[in-house]
Amino acid sequence: MDAYRRYYVPCHAGWVGPTVLLCIYGFCSMMRPIEPFVTVFLTGTYKNLTTEQVTSQVIPVWTYSRAVLLVPVLLITDFLRYKPVIVLQSLTYVTAECCML
């Protein structure tokens, strides 16, 4: 039992706690219930695009541009140690949501 206590690291003192918090934050930030309604919004009178334009031009560019941006964001996140990037991401989400109203 003594050997176990000597090597035991509580979750908050090791890497498990921050990793779990980052995973929960990542899951919550990627929850976008509005995405199924994007096509309806873009084909409406506000943007006036056809369904074919949205499915063949807008969504592929949107998806691949987000995938390309993951590499520099990952490198910047590792370099800055997560906290400033998470705060910046939170602020941009709030700003984007406020602008959509």
TrEMBL record:
Instruction: Please give the name of this protein.
Output: Solute carrier family 19 member 1
Q: Which UniProt key words apply to this protein? A: Membrane, Transmembrane, Transmembrane helix
| GO MF annotations, alphabetized | vitamin transmembrane transporter activity
Key word Transmembrane present in the record? yes
Could you state one GO cellular component term attached to this entry? plasma membrane
What PANTHER family does this protein map onto? FOLATE TRANSPORTER, THIAMINE TRANSPORTER 2
Pfam families reported in the protein's UniProt record: Folate_carrier
UniProt record similarity statement? Belongs to the reduced folate carrier (RFC) transporter (TC 2.A.48) family.
- Transmembrane feature ranges: 7-27, 61-80
Q: Which InterPro entries match?
A: Folate_carrier
